[in-house]
Amino acid sequence: MSSNENRPGGTADWHRRLEHVRGGGLTSDTNQTSGMRRFEAISGKTVGSEKLWMGRTHVGPATNSGDHHHGEAETAIYVVSGHPVFVFAEGPEEVRVETEPGDYIFVPPYVPHREENPSTDEEAVVVIARSTQEGIVVNLPSLWAEVDPNPGGGPGRS
């Protein structure tokens, strides 16, 4: 038995080609939330990923996204530019996390939140990575909306 046969998934899986997505090749054909524009780079449908979604989000000056969550996906966010504020509920209070370029945010599964851009002249841009192959977005009427972790017997998507 060769050492290649001992690798998880066999030789074919570990010899798959690398996929290159150019910055200008991102698509907006992904789930969206009001007040922001999401662009998909890495996903099941773009490169065949099985456990990862990655993309970029833009929030214009003086704009807030709608309240939403990302289903069962863990979400990591890296702030590229601007000073976005990430808002979530803790009991009856809104908690505001103010960020700057170079900061990271972790959003656990099913946690309702929104992004705000308080700047009147600068767009906020973040890079997002999620632990699912597609960009799950469940838009909500508020941060305190009931979240069903298993709507219709499957993951929540809208």
Automatic annotation (TrEMBL):
Enumerate the InterPro entries for this protein. Bacilysin_H2HPP_isomerase (IPR052535), Cupin_2 (IPR013096), RmlC-like_jellyroll (IPR014710), RmlC_Cupin_sf (IPR011051)
**Family annotation (SUPFAM superfamilies):** RmlC-like cupins
Which domain of life does the protein's organism represent?
Bacteria
Q: Name one Pfam family in it.
A: Cupin_2
Q: Where is the composition biased (Basic and acidic residues)?
A: 13-22
Q: Where is the Cupin type-2 domain?
A: 57-127
Query: Region Disordered: what ranges?
Result: 1-34
Which protein are we looking at? Cupin domain-containing protein
- The organism encoding this protein is Saccharopolyspora aridisoli
